[in-house]
# Entry
Amino acid sequence: KPTLLWLRRDLRLRDQAALLAAVEEGPVIPVYILDDHGPKYRIMGAASRWWLHHSLAALDAALRARGSRLILRRGKAADVLAALADESGAGRVHAIAHYEPWWRNAERDVAKRLDLVCHDGNYLLPPATVKTGSGGPYKIFTPFSRAVVEHMPPPAPRPAPAHMSAPDHWPKSETLDECSLLPTKPDWATGMAEEWTPGEEGAHERLDDFVDKASDYDEARNLPSQEGSSRLSPHLHFGEISPAAVWHALRGRSAGVTTFRTEIIWRDYAQNIILTYPDYGKANGKAAFDTLPWRSTSEARADISAWKKGLTGYPIVDAGMRQLWTSGWMHNRVRMIAASFLIKHLLVDWRVGEAWFWDTLVDADYGNNSVNWQWVAGSGVDANMFGRIMAPLVQSPKFDAGDYIRQWVPELAHIQGDAVHDPDAHGCRPADYPAKIIGHREARERALAAYRHVKG
Ligand code: FAD
# Structure
C-alpha cells in the first residue's frame, strides 16, 4: 500500500521528516496541491508563484533521480488527497506541520477524512513548545528568543533518502504549465531569474556561500549595497532547506554567527505569533490602533502608486522599491525604511504595504510579513514603535555610501558623493527624477497628529 507525501512549503529531500517517515512505510506518492480557492487575499502572490514553478520543477527532477516523481494537482487539499487515496489505495498521509491559519484548517479537514501524520522540521522548535512563566504564548521577541536558545542546538539534519520505492501505478499528474504559475506578457521575472536559483540545490549553494561570510554578518547585514546577509529567505520560506541545516552549517561563535542565529529565530517568533493570532495579517495586534485615522486609499492613491513604483523622490526608498520590483527581494534595512515611509510619511494603513509585499516578494511569508509590518507600524502585540519615525535622509547616508542608490535608481547613477542621498537639496536633481512627494517635517507632524487619536 503506498503512502501519500503531502508537500507544501517543505520542498526539499534533505532533513524532511515527513518524507523519511513515508519512505519507511514503503512506496511513496509525493504530491503538491495548488489551491487557488482559499481565502482570496491569501492566494499566493505573483512573485511567489514564479518561485514555486521553478522550485517544483527542481523537486520533480530530484525525485526522478531517486526513482520517484512529483504528482501535481489543483483543488482543495482534502478533496484532492481523498481522491488520490481512492485512486492509489494509499493508506496514510505524511506532511510537515504548517501554521498559517488556512493550512491549519486544511490539516483539520484532511484529518477528518484520512490518516494524516504531521511532522515538525520547518522551524527550529515547533512554535507552541516554549511558553512564558504563566504558561501562555510569548508576545515579545527577546524573551521568546532566550527561551528558544535554551533548546538549541536543533537535532542534526538528516540526509535525503538514497532511493524511494515507486507505487505500482503512478496517479495522473497535471503539468506545471497547466498550473499557470509563470507571468504571461510582460515577463517581469527576468531580474528574478538572474538573482535566484529556486530549489534545494540553490538553497545549499546560498548557504555554502554565506557560511564563509557569517562572521562579518554583524556589521555587513546593515549595508544594503553589500551581500552581507544570507539571502536564504525565499529558500527557507519554501522549505527548500531546513533551519536546522542552516544552524548546524555555521561555524564558530563569532558575534556574526550569534546575531545571525538570533535573526533566524525571528522566523520561529513570527509563527508563534500567527499561531496565537491567526488574523495577524489583517487585524491590528493592539485594538487601540483601530482608531488611527489612516488616509483613505482613494485619497492616497497617487502616493501609494509612487511608493510602489519607486518614485517618491526619496532615493533610498525608491532604490528599495525598485530592487523589490526587479529582483523580488529587498534588503532588510531598506524594508524597514520603505515600510516606515509608507505608514508614517504617507500615513497609509500598513495593510496596503503588507499586501504589496505579499504580491512582489519571493520570500513573502504570512508570519514574517505581517509581524514585521505590524512591528514597524507599532500596531502589533509587541512594542509600540509608531512614534519612532525614521528619517529616510538620516538613515540613507548612515547605511549606504550611495552605491545601493546608484545601482537601483539609474537616473541618479551619475551623482557622486553624498548628494545622491538627497539630490533636491544639493540642486542636482535630474529632470527625470521626481521631487519629494512630501517633506519630512510636514509628514512627521501629520503622522504624530494622527497618532494622537490612538487611545491607550
Ligand atoms: P538574513 O539576515 O540572512 O537572515 C536569515 C534568515 O532569518 C532570513 O532568511 C529569514 O528567514 C530570517 N529573518 C531575518 N530577519 C527576519 C525578520 N525580521 N523577521 C522574520 N524573519 C527574519 N522576511 C520574510 O522571510 N518574508 C517576508 O514576507 C518578510 N517581510 C518583511 C516585511 C517588512 C516590512 C520587514 C521590515 C521585514 C520583512 N521580512 C520578511 C524580514 C527580513 O527583511 C527578511 O527575512 C530578510 O531581509 C531576508 O534576507 P536574508 O535571507 O538575507 O536575511
Q: What stands out?
A: The chain has a mean pLDDT of 96. Residues 221, 229-233, 236-237, 263-264, 266-267, 270, 332, 335-336, 339, 357, 361, 363-365, 368-369, 372-373, 376 surround flavin-adenine dinucleotide (CB under 6 Å).
